[in-house]
Amino acid sequence: MALKPCRLLAFVALSTCLDSPVLANDNALLVQQQGDISYVSGGIGTDERDELEAVKHNYNLRVMNADKTGHFSGDTHITISDSKHNMLLDAPGGPLFYANLPKGHYIVEGFSQDLNKKQAIAITGKSPVAVRFVWPQDTTE
What we know:
globular, alpha+beta, four-stranded antiparallel beta sheet, five-stranded mixed beta sheet
């Protein structure tokens, strides 16, 4: 069975796209999902920060991890629990961490360099909630 010219052209175009490493974007943000919570994390480097900035309007929780001088801290971990302390999310935090949570009350906890900080938040659906965890400067450099 011979392929019709339009199908042949579509097949060749699709094959070319699938085999082309130039079209692959290794730096694209990967949306993760744990239960009902979707999230993105990153922000190391200007390109990654720009990508996160472009999608932050999709998320109602925005966590920033930085040291006291304002420099981003990338060695972080985030957990989110409900008001009854049931763990809902456990993920790497990156300097920037955005999540989309259902309406409710939560405890957001950050971990870095054997330290932890927590903040109670309420997602009401009206506006995003910003959490900023400030960590000591990294002394391992």
